[in-house]
Amino acid sequence: MVFRLVLGCGTVGRKVVERFHDRGDAARDRLLVVTDDTSTVETLRDESVLARDADPTDPSVLEPLESPDVVFVASDRTDSNRAILEHARARFPETSIVAYLGGNATPADRDAFETLADTTIDAETAMVDHVLESVARPSADAAIGLRKQLASIDGRLAVVMHDNPDPDAIASAVGLVDIAAEVGVDADACYFGTISHQENRAMVNLLDLDLRNLSPTDSLEGYDAFALVDHSRPGVNDQLPDDLAVDIVIDHHPPRGPVPGAFVDLREHAGATSTVLTDYLDRFEIEPSVATATALLYGIRIDTNDFTREVSPADFNAASALCPYVDAAVLEQIEQPTVEGETLETIARAIKNRVQRESVAVASVGRISDRDALPQAADQLLAMEGVDTTLIFGFRDEMAFLSARSRASDIDLGEALRDAFDRIGSAGGHADMAGAQLDIGILGSANDEDEVESIVSVVEEVITNRFFEAIETQPGASVGAYTQTSQWLFTIDDGDVEHEESV
């Protein structure tokens, strides 16, 4: 049997006593309320709650009481609660004390409560925390809306990732497929392009994820509904028709323009779309499989750079929820694949060919076959002394691919790349991580290698200058004279990107 002692019984205290009594705990355990509010004492007694009419700020009132297991200090006044707390701690030094701060606390009051109470209840903080929690998690209406939209699908659902998907996109698609199955909807996790990054391939293979690789020539007639994850517009980095009717959109990136979709959940505060899907799994009360949980946790870790970039409380909550289901051994294997020689060569060319203006470095790495090497080269260049912003680009076929990274607080890379390249390609991303793809169709009409190299050198100069100009226009940014560390820049790659992911 637990003995609970309530000292003072204001508005908060009364609600706690009522809830305790309604739960039936008072019938099993002992509860004593001490307050100098006679009417409250009479009401509590009428409700069969043991109550004593006495002043809880008087230390002599506490002397005859046996030591309780828990003390709740609960009058409405801060000064009264502080006096009660001081006497209660002196009388019951080993007892756990929960104290309500009241509404007029001074810094000295807060210090006293922090020192004397095991737990302090601050009404203002509790209210803010409640509001933030409500904002950070999807509302019940959102979960109901997703379930309703899934239930309305008569046929098969295609859950489409962005092209050449990263771990966050892959995991999010797998998570939504699991949710659809719970509602009775058959679904496929689909993507265009390739999964070329060694860690991404390891993730798919080791977790045995069931993905469908679509070709632009494949018919979509087998699907009756479409969902987009980790991007928000059809035809932008997914090779779907841009006028496709979309049923579901779940993403965490800031949109560029209207987002079509019967059900849309864009949670820009989340560090990863995997965080959003984890929250939906929780809302749907679905216990994730080991493969799905491991993929989702990896997706969160990659997109937040191990919880150091654009991370939110929701990301930590999601990671905590996933951990019991994750295969740590497989996750370690995914994170430590062998690095291919071509990736190392791309990084070496980026370092050799860099053009640097103050803390901004730009490099062309020439022709590439693996576009996933670009963000790795951008990350490596960012680690160099004196560099806080990087742009790496390369060429494949008739496309130029760009990958940018920054740790400068006064630069928004997503805006910079959109300003520089939206008119001649597709660009976007976050403040510290962005990318672009440019169609260099003129390369296809070149007659010989010398002409190709001549065109490439012009394109390199245009890309480099446009990026530096865009950085210079950023509020607070300063890019001065530059040092060219190599006479030539080189080439890029293919695609159509709205944003780039860390891979």
If you had to describe this structure to a student in words, what would you say it looks like?
With 503 residues, this protein is α/β, with parallel strands linked by helices. The longest helix is centred in the C-terminal third of the chain and has 24 residues, at 449-472. It has helices spanning 11-23, 25-28, 38-46, 59-62, 78-91, 107-116, 123-136, 140-151, 167-183, 198-206, 273-283, 290-303, 313-322, 328-335, 341-352, 373-382, 413-421, 449-472, and strands spanning 3-7, 30-35, 50-53, 70-73, 96-100, 119-121, 157-160, 187-192, 211-214, 225-229, 248-251, 263-266, 355-357, 360-367, 389-396, 399-406, 425-429, 433-439, 482-484. It contains 18 helices and 19 strands. The two termini are 56 Å apart. It has a 7-stranded mixed β-sheet with strand order 17-18-16-15-14-13-19, with helices on both faces. The protein folds into 3 domains: 3-131, Rossmann fold (3-Layer(aba) Sandwich); 140-335, inorganic pyrophosphatase (n-terminal core); 341-484, Diaminopimelate Epimerase, Chain A, domain 1.
Please report the number of helical segments: 18
- Supply the CATH architecture of the largest domain: Alpha-Beta Complex
Unreliable runs, pLDDT <50, ≥5 residues?
Answer: 481-503
The computed structural class is alpha/beta
Radius of gyration: 30 Å
Average residue pLDDT? 85
Gross morphology? elongated
Report the top-level CATH class of the largest domain: Alpha Beta
**Distance linking N and C termini:** 56 Å
State which percent range the strand residues make up.
Answer: 15-25%
Widest sheet: strand ordering: 17-18-16-15-14-13-19
How many domains in all? 3
Main beta-sheet strand count, sense and barrel state = 7 strands, mixed
